[in-house]
Design a protein that fits this description.
Blueprint (H helix, E strand, L loop, with lengths): L6 H13 L3 E5 L2 H13 L6 E5 L2 H4 L7 E6 L6 H8 L4 E10 L9 H9 L3 E7 L5 E7 L4
Parallel strand pairs: 1-2, 3-4
Antiparallel strand pairs: 4-6, 5-6
Amino acid sequence: MGTSHGYSAIWLGLALEETGGRLTTIEIDRARHDLARRNVAQAGLAQRVTLVQGDAHAAIPTLDGPFDFVFLDADKEGQVDYFHKLYPRKLAPGGLIAVHNAIRQAGAMREYLDLVRNHSDFDTVTISATLDDGFCLSYRRRTS
């Protein structure tokens, strides 16, 4: 969620070329979605990456799953809603949720961070990726 101009989608798509995987992205802003579509096509990944334009809160329930990896880089206040729409049916056992800006925007994500850190089906860590920011990584245990 949160495709923006497609930079992360291109890197993830290139990695998926190695595994034969597929990537689905969601972007609410039409102009960013259109730019991402052009960038993904220019990178030669149009067959590997599906770009959805719309509100992720509404789009997630319509997507086929389960997903092995979810990268959230969208509205921080919506993370709890995203989690409940993904878990348990859309996130595969052994799947990973990676949330960007988990240090710099921790205040806006407090409810989400508390949820995943205390959830019995997840192992969660926050890691620093730059001097002032990082990721929250939540691994869904295979036994959940």
